[in-house]
Amino acid sequence: MEEINPMELLRSNLSRVRIPEPTNRIYKQECCISFDSPRSEGGLFIDMSTFLAFGKDYVVWNYEKTGNPVYLHIKQTKKLVAEDRPSKKPTLLAIGVDGGFDNNEPEYEETHSIVILPNFVALTFPSVELPEKVRLTVDAILMAEGAERKEQVAAWTADKKQISAYAMDLRQTGSVVVPPSGWKCAKCDKTENLWLNLTDGMILCGRRNWDGTGGNNHAIDHYKETGYPLAVKLGTITADLESADVFSYPEDDSVIDPLLAQHMAYFGIDFSSLQKTEMTTAERELDQNTNFDWNRIQESGQDVEAIFGPGYTGLVNLGNSCYMAATMQVVFSTHSFCRRYYMNQSLKMAFETAPADPTVDLNMQLTKLAHGLLSGKYSFPASEKGGTAVPPITDAKQEGIPPRMFKAVIAASHPEFSTMRQQDALEFFLHFLDQVECSNAMKSELDPSRSFKFGVEERIMCSSGKVAYNKRLDYILSLNIPLHEATNKGELESFHKTKAEKISEGKDVSSDEIVRPRVPLEACLANFAAPEEIHEFYSSALKAKTTAIKTAGLTSFPDYLVLHMRKFVMEAGWVPKKLDVYIDVPDIIDIGHMRSKGLQPGEELLPEAAPGSEAESSQPVANEEIVAQLVSMGFNQLPCQKAAINTLNAGVEEAMNWLLSHMDDPDIDAPISHGAQGPEASIDQSTVDTLISFGFQEEIARMALKASGGDIEKATDWIFNNPNPSASPDMDTTTSSNSIPTPVDAGLPDGVGRYRLFGIVSHIGTSTQCGHYVAHILKDGRWVIFNDNKVGASINPPKDMGYLYFFERINS
């Protein structure tokens, strides 16, 4: 058989080569089916027609599916380094920038060639002998910024300080002369954390921390009294004025004062002679990363045994993506998700059924993530890949896999998750399950999200003695934390007494001395099921408003029960605050007593509201006290009314939580609708068409959109929660009627109420929008810590510090 000339073979396939246009997405850093990269053993193959990238084991699948034979092969080989450079202490809260955390990233040498499938015939690049079209295509690919890079920020850093709007025209008064040392707060005995007000020269202490340390708030109190905007932290001023810590109270941020030298000279301060004695705010943030909670949750300072192999693969942090990493590690530790996207679906099967661009297909990217996490292919020590010495067994850091494409797909319908900002792990978990449910809409028997879903039934009894039952479906059981049920009240009283004494003496409370409330999980569960009063409840039996009693229970017990601890509450002044509390969580819980029994013999249902004016008056009415308090916090009247109505006037905290999570709803400022007043006209036909494209009938789509205010995601939930297509949108409320509605939890998994704890997602930080998330998972009989790309045997899992707790039902 005559051997084909490689150049002739290439020329015969030039029609399958396309020069990329500026709008084309070019993938050249990661395989769209696996986590292979140019640094993998086989390198990466870029389809020179579609510009999708494939690893060596998968490029043939693309050739078989598309017939595209010409590929640019990129291979990166690590350059040899004589000796590892020592890590430098960071001076910035940043990664991958000068002064930030040192990644010690090795350098790589890159080679290119043209490869023609199916026989992997290779031609050297660059070469003047190659056709011009090929050379132009390769140059365009190599020069383009990869699609992966556009969706990722390689380094993150704290927001750059801005010049204060108050600096240039700052008015200074008085004749105070500030000495170069020996400072003390003008209103207490504090000698540290002192701030010089740049208007009148007052020296006052900084803010009090949550644990009693820090100052006594005298500096900020002075601003509230006088309105003087800028202050500089004494002890941070040196000849390098840019490093000084200047804070703007009205702008509520650290700022730059271009005239700082002039402003300090007014008070007789010669900055050139001052020495740095205090940490800046940014440096204190760095220092606080080593506090008790941080070390405890991350198990820092302990010899954690590294674990490698199937199911023990770390996830690379893409920049504040730990909320996603911790959640997905727990999700893929469940049998339902493992079966759906790993055991019962191969990568080839997912690729063959994927659209032309598999990077935008959730099924493909979930299968890719599952195989990446569970196969063990990418679970090895970080330095082993380059052929250098294997790190000690206590170094749990892995190379890990970067979930870029998965993040891009899951964030497509939720713009906030596409940012590099920290997010709420709970919000991400719920959004993720919603997307999984939608993607499995036509094959619900395969939907793994159902293993988390359960029914909740609320029983409402008005003063007439008659009852109504409201049912809904949920993925999580959100629990308030009753601090009054703490089991260590004696220790707490003693601690608060000692703390008050130390503060009065101007002393700080050390982290070792802090005593936190300990609340049993059983108390949180009991609080959920406890009777609750509903004021201003309209009784269709009394035809008047009255006070009703509401109780709640579960109508089904899911395969996996997720408990969300409401650690973030509103404190005085309506400021969000994280509860500093421990939850005593046992390994096994039994919630059998929480099963709702439904309508009982002898109970009489509330009658359906009569049509006309009485029906109109039965519409929910917002509690004016709740609305007034929310409005006083700066929110508009209409959204506040909606918040109160949608939380059944349960209280300000519940309404605030609803308001904060629905501020971005497109209809948040739309008038409150009472009854059907031309709802069809308000439904956008494009949203109807979208639901029809999901496989739903038009009548059902319109009914769902009407019931959910036109929101597609909520409408989809409504359809799944209301399986009877001819039922009215209010079928989840049981009152006296001749119809027998289909249970909202029909077909959901159910069983006994005994559960075993198997996963914990913990949060470090003052808010869900900052800080860090870590997962601890019970695998193969031992607890394992998953901290981004670090995976190791847990020595002391923080069972009492969880934000989300994951339980698996015990069937035997």
Automatic annotation (TrEMBL):
GO MF entries: cysteine-type deubiquitinase activity; zinc ion binding
Signal peptide: none
Catalytic activity: Thiol-dependent hydrolysis of ester, thioester, amide, peptide and isopeptide bonds formed by the C-terminal Gly of ubiquitin (a 76-residue protein attached to proteins as an intracellular targeting signal)
UBA domain span: 621-662, 682-722
Domain of life where this protein originates: Eukaryota
Binding residues for Zn(2+): 185, 188, 205, 218
Keywords tagged on the record: Hydrolase, Metal-binding, Protease, Repeat, Thiol protease, Ubl conjugation pathway, Zinc, Zinc-finger
Enzyme active site: 322, 772
Domain USP, chain residue ranges per copy: 313-810
EC number: 3.4.19.12
Residue ranges, annotated region (Disordered): 724-745
Role, per record: Recognizes and hydrolyzes the peptide bond at the C-terminal Gly of ubiquitin. Involved in the processing of poly-ubiquitin precursors as well as that of ubiquitinated proteins.
Similarity-based family: Belongs to the peptidase C19 family.
Protein name (record): Ubiquitin carboxyl-terminal hydrolase
Natural source organism: Durio zibethinus
High-level lineage: Eukaryota, Viridiplantae, Streptophyta, Embryophyta, Tracheophyta
Gene name in the database record: LOC111301658
